[in-house]
């Protein structure tokens, strides 16, 4: 079985046969063509792993083919060949994206080395690409955050984007339900079509039907012209119905028919109209509870609640609070021409401890207020709104300038009571641990500790991290998220452990 596919573009039949033999001996599945147009057709029909391309062809220049391939199939590795080699041509080819440049005549060994190097590069690029895909995303389609909860949301968006299935977004006010809906739209096949958002709670109940379906001239007092509704405007795209549980039951039945058939009738109209719309709904309530209370139709619930997406509140997103706050501070400081560059350690701790009942929207307002009312290079604790400071003063955990702490899951703490990430952050120490040597180890005399009981710090660290990876079924990025460190830190530490173990042996 061939190990890789190759399209060889060579107008000389004798050389083409010779090069094909060389490539086949390396495990290649070779397709030999003589013209540039024929090569482009083959590439579009079945893109190869490698393209071995002669620069001078009867119908077009190999450099033109290279330029087209770089635009349409940038993942194809291209090796240029020519009988008229020069440094300038080689430099131009490499700048245009070629992997290597061979001057005729060349033997099988020279070609084999080039092909092997090209395949090694492809494998490395794939490994890097797979690794980067597995890393937590800090920015995604308008969202900011790399917490595990948000990575789950991002993955769900990727999975449902190209589907026509209805999506139901649930989350507290201010968590970004409209941002999520627009992200689904932009990540899918309908991205070039309209995205129409309608807030069912902000429109008077006697006007919402007209807002959704439109109306004809004279349908009601004030309808002086025919008007398209959101259904018509969203044709081919996405219709986002926010706070849908606030919709009147009578209109819910009309909406149900529209969702089932794609057919609707304008207010005051006599003709049915048909559109192609993808539905995304959202609410800050429990939709099933609304069904049980008789506030939301059960049949409509099942039509809309096909793919649920739950947005986590900001207080459950860990250090995402700081990522969002820093982005907002830069944005607002630029808009208001203020010199703010960052937050003091005390403010960073405060932002992480505050529960944010209004979620991201409240955080936006707080940062905006700080920027507008103050003028300094750094946000200090005194600049926080009084409501935030009052709430923080009522919590059991005081705000201080201490280093950020790492919160370790109960399972990991039970398996390894001592968390050794001294190079990442300082551990939070319980009240029973004091700085005096006699109390450094509760319920145990210091004198009873022997050298045999003391383990090297890196071994304890190694055991903790390996335990986390095992809990996550070998998923290093997930384990890193739970441990609150970056995946690159784990890979770096694994390499250092190997060196330490080798030094001990």
Helical residue percent band: 40-55%
What's the architecture of the largest domain, going by CATH? 3-Layer(aba) Sandwich
Q: Which structural class do you get from the secondary structure elements?
A: alpha/beta
CATH topology of the largest domain: Rossmann fold
Give a short account of the largest sheet: 5 strands, parallel
Give the neighbour order of strands across the main sheet.
Answer: 2-1-3-4-5
Summarize model confidence as the mean pLDDT. 83
* Low-pLDDT windows of residues: 396-449
Please state roughly what percent of the residues sit in beta strands, choosing from under 5%, 5-15%, 15-25%, 25-35%, 35-45% or over 45%.
5-15%
How many H/I helical runs?
20
Total domain modules: 4
The count of β-strands is 16
Distance between the termini: 42 Å
> What gross morphology would you assign?
extended
CATH class of the largest domain: Alpha Beta
By CATH, the superfamily of the largest domain comes out as P-loop containing nucleotide triphosphate hydrolases
- What would you report as the Rg, rounded to the nearest angstrom? 31 Å
Organism: Shewanella maritima
Domain Sigma-54 factor interaction: 143-372
Domain Response regulatory: 5-119
GO molecular function: ATP binding; sequence-specific DNA binding
Write a structural description.
This protein is an alpha/beta fold and 505 residues long. It folds into four domains: 4-132, Rossmann fold; 139-312, P-loop containing nucleotide triphosphate hydrolases (Rossmann fold), CATH 3.40.50; 315-393, Helicase, Ruva Protein, domain 3 (Orthogonal Bundle); 410-504, no CATH class. Helices cover 45% and strands 13% of the residues. It contains 20 helices and 16 strands. The chain has helices spanning 13-25, 36-45, 62-72, 87-95, 108-134, 148-160, 177-187, 208-213, 230-233, 249-261, 287-292, 298-304, 320-336, 345-353, 359-373, 386-393, 410-415, 457-471, 476-483, 487-504; strands spanning 4-9, 28-33, 50-54, 77-82, 100-103, 139-140, 143-144, 167-170, 195-199, 238-242, 263-265, 272-274, 278-283, 307-310, 342-343, 378-379. Strands 2-1-3-4-5 form a five-stranded parallel β-sheet, with helices on both faces. A five-stranded parallel β-sheet has the order 9-10-13-8-14. A two-stranded antiparallel ribbon has the order 6-7. Helix 3 (62-72) links the parallel strand 3 and strand 4. Helix 13 (320-336) packs parallel to helix 15 (359-373), helix 18 (457-471) crosses helix 19 (476-483) and helix 18 packs across helix 20 (487-504). It is extended and about 85 Å long. Residues 396-449 have low confidence and may be disordered.
